[in-house]
Amino acid sequence: MGVRGFAKAARVARRAVLGGVAAVVVAGVMTGALPAWAQGKVKVAGVYTVPIEQQWVSRIHTALKAAEARGEIEYVWAESVANTDYERVMRQYAEAGQQLVFGEVFGVERAARAVAKDYPKTAFVMGSSFKPQEPNFSVFDNYIQEPAYLTGMIAGAMTKSNVIGLVGGYPIPEVNRLMNAFVEGAKEVNPKVKVSVSFIGSWFDPPKAKEAAFAMIDRGADVMYAERFGVSDAAKERKVLAIGNVIDTQPQYPDTVVASALWHMEPSVDRAIAAVKAGSYKAEDYGPYSKMEHKGSSLAPLGTFESKIPAEVIAKVKAREAEIRAGKFTVKVDDGEPKSTM
Q: Within this chain, do residues 76 and 117 fall inside the same structural domain, yes or no?
């Protein structure tokens, strides 16, 4: 996969070279500020360690494609980039004159931040567990713990065995806070709930996630929290229920996926593009723009399960959602690694 990512990144980088951009960047260096780009489209690149079909990265890609469709940006990307290639690809894009670079650097923090220091006139907005770095390295993550809590409420009501399985990629804050919020939501409506938690050590390994889910189902789990691809496949095969994360997969699993916590990256993407174009870009934490108050996350429509979830449960979930949106209920952010309670 690293070889494919290397070759794809090289081809994309060559396409990204645009005459005259480097001269504008140099002019910005002379003024001591990130240049404004009022004329023309902002040139944006994405550097992704997984395929763009992977649910988390797909939300960034979708938001950038929407901006491209509106005519605001020129967008190129490299997918399936190995961690060992990540720094090189970032440098290629910066050298090619890309003004704004999106990606996820959870496994390459030090290298990515070094690149940002070397290209202070390029804006970077990266998924990260750490803080922004002046002057040009912003961070974000999927602060979707609020809809995750709501899906937990639904899961707690739908389980019959009172055992829920959670399969995640890595126990990092961005994953932990969603799992913990989900569990708290489940316990609100069903204090008897117990959870089985497993991390597969990969961001994209559907077969491994599927096997982990099978093991939990064999131990009695009848609702699965599908933080990774592969979990819903296991749930479908074993005829148990699943809760989606980041994207809505109910159309693919109409009898399996009960509800999903959706992430909308558009508020963060649009904010970064506007700042770069105006010359006002600065290093900041974009995480809060994924909260429901900024329309950065939501509870997916219940669709095929609208009539299968008890009416009183739906009413309770809608009431809690209204309280969250009104600022009357706060979902606790718990970044600690969730533990099994079985």
A: yes
What size, in residues, is the chain?
342
Q: What is the pLDDT of residue 34?
A: 52
Q: Please indicate, yes or no, if residue 336 is contained in any of the structural domains.
A: no
Mean pLDDT, range 174-185, rounded to an integer: 96
Within 10 Å of residue 161's Cβ, how many Cβ atoms? 15
If DSSP codes are grouped into helix, strand and coil, which group holds residue 168? Answer: strand
Question: Phi and psi at residue 233, in whole multiples of 5°?
Answer: -65, -45
Query: What tokens were used for 235?
Result: 């749930």
Residues 132, 218 within the same domain: no
In a shared domain, residues 36 and 63:
yes
Got the DSSP string for 223-265?
EEEESSTTHHHHHHHHT-EEEEEES--TTTSTTTEEEEEEE--
pLDDT greater than 70 at residue 74: yes
Count of structural domains, the chain:
2
Output the pLDDT for position 186. Answer: 98
Is the pLDDT at 28 greater than 50? The verdict is: no
Angle at 232 between CA 231 and CA 235, to 5 degrees: 95
135 and 173 together in one domain: no
pTM for the model stands at: 0.83
Residues 9 and 118 in one domain: yes
The confidence score (pLDDT) of residue 6 equals 34
Residue 307: C-alpha distances to residues 53, 58, 235, 258, 303 (Å): 30, 30, 20, 11, 9
Shared-domain flag, residues 118 and 201: no
Domain boundaries, position 169: 145-263+294-325
